[in-house]
Write a sequence for this structure.
């Protein structure tokens, strides 16, 4: 084999499309996920792919990456028609992809994970060296020898990006890369993307964050209901005009929380300390708070600071010995099962919707049963009332605008955002007394996010206590009455919304102790 | 050039249905080669194995008789496997059920005990099988011991217990020193369905078990729990389903069904307790469970098919002098192909030509 010349940087003057789709169509049964889509991406371009949940964005990029076989239409690579038999072939052409959900092994090192994702038979040592080079070169610091469990979400995504870059792609696809990043991490990512663009590569970028798209992207293709509706320059559009093209109508604003009357405490946590169940988990330390009916408490914090552990303890997936540590509606229930807590009127939405919130390979009606069996009338004398489970699916579909190919599909076939609407809607519709929800609008489009936030506010207005954990500070500020920050397993004193400025929250998220910071200040005054 | 397995983007439903058929086809081809090597005419041999038994009434009854324990055991095993609990020791639970039921038969022998004897024997067989299965299940839940190993090892313990009993305390004094109990009394015998035939009540019980399993899995919350725990353990925990409890439950149920099959076999077609009451039903049932796709109706069909191989094997031994062990070889090859073909549901084969370009560092 002769070494090929470095294929990446294209002739700076080319404007010939690098990748084209012509009439690309993907059919699932009678449902058209992609309907005759024409797309053109040229080198030296960051091309946004926009659309509501279920518009067909992921389907389109999976087709380009060879993961999904198109039902009709054509793919062209540098002008020549191609047929991809799988991702390996796409990679060999120079197409790279970073998925929204990472595929990393926690107990392997960064280098080992990268090696598993590469096609060649390169020895680990060479990979490690090359990895360090690429990482340094692009300013994406990564220690090849660290094990993945020690890394933050942002660092994990860096692995995926570096892995894609090591294939030296001419064309890089990123599916909602910033959904899980902090604003700082997102900024770092944008610097890298600008650099890649300057090197003559093309990038296809999926995001629901329109301001980000306006800032970064040169072109935007907008999908609606599987069809392409427009191609435009996002810099010349406003976020509202982009949204209008995506939805076809105006988006509703979330009504500012009307003055709500708070009632009695419905969820009380008393000095909760809990050793991690998993090897690499976070220890919860002396967590105490009180949440009243009619109130929304937001929990901010960088992922991996104990939010998952707190969720497990509150939901009853993990039991605590001392019953009085967690009190639901006046009843000590630290040692009660999740089913008993549901019967007491609590409802839970975990962060991970596939595999945790739902069984991916089971139908939506079965997934309605998964949490509904406890407290809803879906089971009689041990027998499942199939009609009742379907009614829940229909009601959720209607209320939360869940778009899907048929009435009762497998959970895994729903688009990410639509599944999110389902898992949140499923719980809200049960009208819980206490709702604990993690990342309620993760990967959800602007319109649907507004629906979900409004539903949370309405639930609180009706007297429920709502605990929202989110990485999205804007979201928390928009809907919460008070906001606390989680850091290294500690929960800060909640700040009233008026005092919860971005700066103060940011400091708390970095581990600063505001009280102590303010003490000398006060003394000096 | 190399052959690689590549993950399919979507699960192939068609392949899920035809994969058992592909497995059977491949098994038949392999068997033909094996017959040819043994110097037998493959076409004739396959005819004797798979066609001849279907052509006379006696063999058809015999197929149903052999399918009865296979189906009952496999239904139980399928519940375990769906719940991700690996009971490999159904053979031992079968033997223990046979022993426990026989204990009642032996102790009421020659008394004028009434019609309660057979029902009591069936209950005893089921309970003993369940208790015996709970040993490995408890070891897994309490100590994390691999239930695969412990359940398998307990098969040999059961085998020796049975052997000891029929050679020692329970041996028929009038039995010319053969290691066997006396022939059971009529009240301790499973009645036949057709006068003078071999088909017995156990086959009806097996059908009831199939129907019960279908309702359990399809219509009840317990069945739902079993299915969720297997395919999505984390979601199951979120749903409030306790995986350990389900390990105990499915092991107990499958042990009970194996034990019931054991006592029915002894009190039915055999009529007394002796060593070698099972030609490996407990192990063959594993094949039945997988060939039937862990689905009750599929298991019924698969059970009849594997029963056919037992009958065909006996006939091939008589008419063509093909060793009986060939049947076991056949069943082993079949399981191998079934599991291999199952990979086709999730993966596809692909030829990769290693003309890969040398990659240089990015940038
Ligand atoms: N395997 C499948 N079987 C059936 N329908 C499918 C399958 N995969 C996707 N779909 C349907 O195709 C539509 C488009 O899905 P896709 O994942 O492309 O949406 P998306 O634009 O990426 O949305 P999101 O923003 O929520 O990620 C969805 O309505 C989904 O239900
Ligand atoms: Mg998507």
């Amino acid at each position: 084999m002769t070494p090929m010349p470095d294929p990446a940087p294209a002739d700076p003057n080319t404007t010939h499309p690098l990748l084209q789709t012509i009439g690309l169509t993907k059919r699932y049964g009678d449902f058209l996920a992609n309907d005759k889509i024409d797309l053109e991406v040229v080198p030296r371009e960051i091309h946004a792919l926009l659309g509501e949940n279920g518009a067909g964005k992921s389907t389109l990029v999976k087709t380009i990456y060879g993961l999904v076989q198109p039902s009709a239409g054509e793919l062209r690579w540098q002008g020549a028609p191609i047929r991809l038999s799988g991702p390996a072939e796409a990679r060999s052409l120079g197409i790279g992809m970073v998925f929204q959900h990472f595929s990393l092994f926690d107990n392997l090192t960064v280098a080992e994970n990268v090696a598993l994702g590469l096609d060649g038979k390169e020895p680990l040592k060479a990979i490690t060296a090359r990895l360090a080079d690429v990482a340094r070169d692009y300013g994406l610091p990564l220690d090849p020898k660290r094990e993945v469990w020690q890394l933050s979400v942002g660092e994990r995504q860096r692995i995926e990006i570096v892995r894609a870059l090591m294939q030296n792609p001419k064309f890089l696809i990123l599916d909602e890369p910033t959904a899980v990043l902090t604003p700082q991490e997102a900024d770092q990512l944008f610097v890298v993307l600008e650099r890649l663009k300057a090197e003559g590569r093309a990038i296809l970028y999926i995001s629901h964050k329109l301001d980000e798209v306006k800032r970064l992207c040169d072109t935007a293709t907008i999908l609606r209901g599987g069809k392409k509706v427009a191609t435009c320059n996002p810099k010349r559009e406003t976020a509202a005009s982009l949204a209008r093209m995506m939805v076809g109508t105006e988006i509703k604003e979330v009504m500012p929380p009307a003055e709500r009357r708070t009632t009695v405490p419905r969820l009380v946590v008393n000095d909760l300390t809990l050793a991690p169940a998993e090897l690499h988990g976070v220890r919860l330390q002396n967590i105490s708070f009180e949440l009243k009916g009619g109130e929304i408490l937001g929990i901010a914090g960088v992922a991996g600071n104990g939010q998952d552990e707190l969720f497990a303890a509150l939901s009853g997936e993990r039991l605590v010995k001392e019953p009085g540590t967690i009190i639901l509606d006046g009843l000590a229930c630290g040692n009660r099962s999740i089913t008993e807590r549901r019967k007491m009127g609590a409802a839970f939405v975990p962060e991970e919707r596939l595999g945790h919130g739902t069984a991916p390979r089971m139908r939506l009606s079965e997934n309605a049963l998964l949490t509904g069996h406890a407290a809803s009338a879906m089971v009689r004398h041990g027998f499942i009332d199939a009609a009742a489970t379907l009614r829940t699916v229909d009601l959720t579909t209607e209320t939360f605008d869940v778009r899907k190919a048929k009435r009762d599909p497998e959970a895994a076939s729903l688009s990410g955002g639509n599944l999110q609407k389902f898992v949140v809607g499923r719980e809200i519709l049960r009208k819980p007394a206490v709702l604990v929800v993690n990342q309620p609008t993760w990967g959800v489009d602007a319109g649907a996010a507004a629906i979900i936030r409004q539903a949370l506010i309405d639930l609180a207005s009706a007297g429920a206590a709502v605990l929202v954990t989110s990485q999205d500070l804007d979201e928390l500020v928009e809907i919460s009455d008070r906001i606390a920050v989680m850091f290294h397993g500690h929960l800060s004193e909640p700040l009233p919304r008026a005092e919860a400025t971005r700066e103060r929250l940011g400091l708390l998220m970095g581990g600063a102790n505001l009280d102590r910071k303010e003490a000398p200040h006060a003394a000096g005054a | 050039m190399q052959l690689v397995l590549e993950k399919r983007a979507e699960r192939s439903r068609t392949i899920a249905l035809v994969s058992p058929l592909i497995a059977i086809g491949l098994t038949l081809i392999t068997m033909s080669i094996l017959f040819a090597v043994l110097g037998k005419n493959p076409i004739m041999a396959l005819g004797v194995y798979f066609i001849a038994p279907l052509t006379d009434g006696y063999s058809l009854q015999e197929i149903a008789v052999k399918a009865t324990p296979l189906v009952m055991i496999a239904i139980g095993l399928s519940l375990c496997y769906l719940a991700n609990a690996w009971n490999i020791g159904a053979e031992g639970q079968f033997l223990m059920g046979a022993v426990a039921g026989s204990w009642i038969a032996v102790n009421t022998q020659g008394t004028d005990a009434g019609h309660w004897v057979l029902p009591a024997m069936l209950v005893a067989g089921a309970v003993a099988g369940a208790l015996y299965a709970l040993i490995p299940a408890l070891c897994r839940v309490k100590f994390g011991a691999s239930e695969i190993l412990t359940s398998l090892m307990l098969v040999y313990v059961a085998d020796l217990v049975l052997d000891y009993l029929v050679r020692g305390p329970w041996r028929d004094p009038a039995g010319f020193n053969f290691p066997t109990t006396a022939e059971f009394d009529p009240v301790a015998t499973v009645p036949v369905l057709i006068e003078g035939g071999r088909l017995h009540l156990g086959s009806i019980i097996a059908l009831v078990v199939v129907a019960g399993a279908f309702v359990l899995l399809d219509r009840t919350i317990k069945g739902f729990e079993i299915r969720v725990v297997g395919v999505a353990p984390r979601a199951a925990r979120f749903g409030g389903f306790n995986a350990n409890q389900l390990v105990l439950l499915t092991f107990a149920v499958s042990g009970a069904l194996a034990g019931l099959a054991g006592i029915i076999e002894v009190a039915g077609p055999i009529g007394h307790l002796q060593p070698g009451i099972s030609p490996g039903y407990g192990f063959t049932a594993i094949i039945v469970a997988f060939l039937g796709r862990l689905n009750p109706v599929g298991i019924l069909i698969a059970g009849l098919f594997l029963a056919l191989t037992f009958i065909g094997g006996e006939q091939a031994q008589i008419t063509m002098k093909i060793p009986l062990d060939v049947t076991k070889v056949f069943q082993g090859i079949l399981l191998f192909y079934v599991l291999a073909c199952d990979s086709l549901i999730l993966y596809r084969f692909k030829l990769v030509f290693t003309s890969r370009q040398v990659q240089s560092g990015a940038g």
Chain B touches chain A at residues 6, 9-11, 219-222, 224, 227-228, 231-232, 234-240, 350, 352, 355-363 (CB under 8 Å). Residues 69-306 of chain B form one domain. Residues A 57-58, 415-416 surround magnesium ion (ligand 2) (CB under 6 Å).
